[in-house]
TrEMBL record:
It comes from Georgenia ruanii. This is MFS transporter. The keyword Transmembrane applies. One of its GO terms (cellular component) is plasma membrane. The chain crosses the membrane at residues 45-64, 70-89, 101-126, 132-157, 178-196, 202-221, 245-264, 296-316, 328-345, 351-369, 390-411, 417-438. Residues 30-443 form the Major facilitator superfamily (MFS) profile domain. GO terms for molecular function: transmembrane transporter activity. PANTHER family: SHIKIMATE TRANSPORTER. The keyword Translocase does not apply.
Length: 465
C-alpha cells in the first residue's frame, strides 16, 4: 500500500521537503495538538454532564416540578440533537477549506459556552430565564462537539504512517477519557474544597470558569499544527468537494447509518459515566446507595485512567489485528462490563463500585480506540470530513444523547437497575451487529489518487454505496 499522501517521502504540496526527523516531529506535534484540543473540548462537555447529575436539577429546574433531575438530564441529551448541525457545518467547511480552520473555531465555541455557564444565574435569581439560557449554551456545546471530532481524528490519521493509523488515531480518542479524568478530578477537588451546600452554591462554578485557561492552551497548541496532507493535496489540485454533504447522502447513506450504529453501541454505555448517571445514582440521598459525592467522583476519575489505557492499547492493537477484529473483541469485553456494572455498584461498596466502572471502561476503550482509523478508512478523501462527522453525530444521538434520562426513567418505573442493564446490553449487541456488516479496510490508501477504490462500499452485500 502507498502512504496516505501521494507525494514522495518528506514532500509536501508546493514543493517543500522535510527530513525524516522533521516529519516525525511534525507528526508528534499533530498528535499532541489533537490530544490537547479534544481533552479540552470533552472536559467542557463532561463538566456540564457531571453538573447536570449533581447540581443543575435543584439550581436551574427547582421551580419546574418534582422531575428536576430528569429535566436536568434531558438538557444533556438536547445538545446531541444539535450535533448533526455542527457536523454538517463542520463537514462542509472541513472538506472545502481544511481541517485546521474547523478545529480552531470549535475549540473557541466550546470554551466560550462553558465559561458562560459558570457565571449563569440560577432559577432562584432570574426564574425560568435560567434554564432557558442554560439550554441555549448547551446547544452551543452540542454544535461545537459535532464539529470537533471529525477534524481532530482526520488530522491525526491523515498525518499517520499507514501501519500506525490505529495508534495515531487513538490520540484524539484519548481526549474522552482524559476529559473525563480532568472533569471528574476537578469536580472531586471542588467537592473537597467546598463541601455540602458550598458546592451547590458556588463550588460547581469553578470547573466551568477554568475552561478559559484550558481554551487558551488548546488554541496556542493547535495554531502551530500544519494542515492535513490529504486535504493539502486536494486543495493544490483544486479538488475540494462541491456540496460534500449532498454527495455523502447520495452515494453513502447506508454506510453512514451502519457506522452511526457502531458508535451508538459504545456511546450509550459510555454515557453511564460521562453523562453523569452513575454519579447521580450513587450519590442520590433518596436512592439505594447514597454514597458521599467526593469518593464517587474519585472512583469515576480512577475509571477514566483504565479507559485511557485501554483506548491506547486498542488503537495500537488494531494496527495488527485489524479494526474489525479489535472491535469485535471490544464488544465482548463491553458486554461483560455491562452485566457486571450494577451488581457491583449496588453493593454500596466504593471499591466494588470502582471495580464495576473499571471493567466497563476496558470494553469501552476497545470499542473506541480504533474508531478514528476505522471511520477514516471507510469514506472517500473528498467527503471524508463530512462522512466521519455526520456518522459520529448521528451515532451520538442514537446512543448517548438520552441514555442517562432513559436509565433514570427505567429505574423510576421499575424500582431496579435490571432494565438498565438490558438496555445497555441491547445497545452493545447493536454495535456488534453493525460492526459485522463492515469489511475491514485497514491500510487502504487515504489520498485522492485512490478515490475510486475508496468509493467501493465497505458494507457487506453492497458493491457501491
Amino acid at each position: 500500500m502507498s502512504s496516505s499522501p501521494t507525494f514522495p517521502p518528506g514532500a509536501r504540496p508546493g514543493g517543500a521537503t522535510l527530513t525524516a526527523v522533521d516529519e516525525t516531529r511534525d507528526r508528534r506535534r499533530v498528535v499532541f495538538a489533537t490530544v490537547i484540543g479534544t481533552t479540552v473540548e470533552w472536559y467542557d462537555f463532561f463538566t456540564y454532564a457531571f453538573a447536570a447529575g449533581l447540581v443543575f436539577g435543584p439550581a436551574f429546574f427547582s421551580g419546574l416540578g418534582e422531575n428536576s433531575v430528569l429535566l436536568s438530564f434531558a438538557t444533556v441529551g438536547v445538545s446531541f440533537l444539535f450535533r448533526p448541525f455542527g457536523a454538517f457545518l463542520a463537514g462542509h467547511l472541513g472538506d472545502k477549506y481544511g481541517r485546521k480552520l474547523v478545529l480552531m473555531v470549535t475549540l473557541i465555541l466550546m470554551g466560550a459556552a462553558t465559561a458562560l455557564i459558570g457565571v449563569l444565574p440560577t432559577y432562584a435569581a432570574i426564574g425560568v430565564a435560567a434554564p432557558i439560557l442554560l439550554i441555549l449554551l448547551r446547544v452551543v456545546q452540542g454544535v461545537s462537539a459535532g464539529g470537533e471530532w471529525g477534524g481532530a481524528v482526520l488530522m491525526a490519521v491523515e498525518h499517520a504512517p499507514d501501519k500506525k493509523r490505529g495508534l495515531f488515531g487513538a490520540g484524539p480518542q484519548t481526549g474522552v477519557p482524559l476529559g473525563l479524568l480532568l472533569a471528574s478530578g476537578v469536580m472531586a477537588l471542588m467537592a473537597m474544597i467546598a463541601p455540602g451546600d458550598a458546592f451547590l452554591e458556588w463550588g460547581w462554578r469553578i470547573p466551568f470558569l477554568l475552561s478559559v485557561v484550558l481554551i487558551l492552551v488548546g488554541y496556542y497548541v493547535r495554531r502551530k499544527v500544519e494542515e492535513s496532507p490529504v486535504f493539502a493535496e486536494l486543495a493544490e489540485r483544486k479538488q475540494e468537494a462541491q456540496m460534500p454533504i449532498l454527495r455523502l447522502f447520495c452515494k453513502h447513506t447506508v454506510l453512514v447509518i451502519v457506522t452511526a450504529l457502531v458508535f451508538a453501541g459504545n456511546n450509550a454505555v459510555g454515557y453511564m459515566t460521562t453523562g453523569g448517571y452513575i454519579q447521580n445514582y450513587a450519590t442520590n440521598p433518596d436512592g439505594p446507595i447514597a454514597l458521599d459525592r467526593g469518593p464517587v467522583l474519585w472512583a469515576v476519575t480512577g475509571s477514566a485512567i483504565t479507559w485511557l489505557l485501554s483506548t491506547i492499547v486498542a488503537g495500537w492493537a488494531s494496527d495488527f489485528l485489524g479494526r474489525r477484529t479489535t472491535y469485535i473483541l471490544g464488544w465482548v469485553l463491553q458486554l461483560g462490563g455491562v452485566f457486571a456494572l450494577f451488581p457491583l455498584v449496588n453493593t454500596g461498596n466504593l471499591a466494588l463500585l470502582f471495580a464495576g466502572l473499571a471493567l466497563l471502561t476496558i470494553g469501552l476503550g476497545f470499542t473506541y480506540g480504533p474508531q478514528a482509523a476505522l471511520y477514516s478508512e471507510l469514506f472517500p478523501a473528498s467527503i471524508r470530513f463530512s462522512g466521519v462527522s455526520v456518522s459520529y453525530a448521528i451515532g451520538a444521538i442514537l446512543g448517548g444523547a438520552f441514555a442517562p434520562m432513559i436509565a433514570t426513567a427505567i429505574v423510576k418505573a421499575t424500582g431496579g437497575t435490571g432494565g438498565v442493564t438490558a438496555y445497555l446490553a441491547g445497545m452493545t449487541v447493536v454495535g456488534l451487529l453493525a460492526t459485522l456488516l463492515l469489511r475491514d479496510r485497514s491500510g487502504i490508501p487515504l489520498g485522492p489518487d485512490h478515490e475510486a477504490e475508496q468509493q467501493v462500499s465497505p458494507v457487506r452485500g453492497l458493491s457501491q454505496a
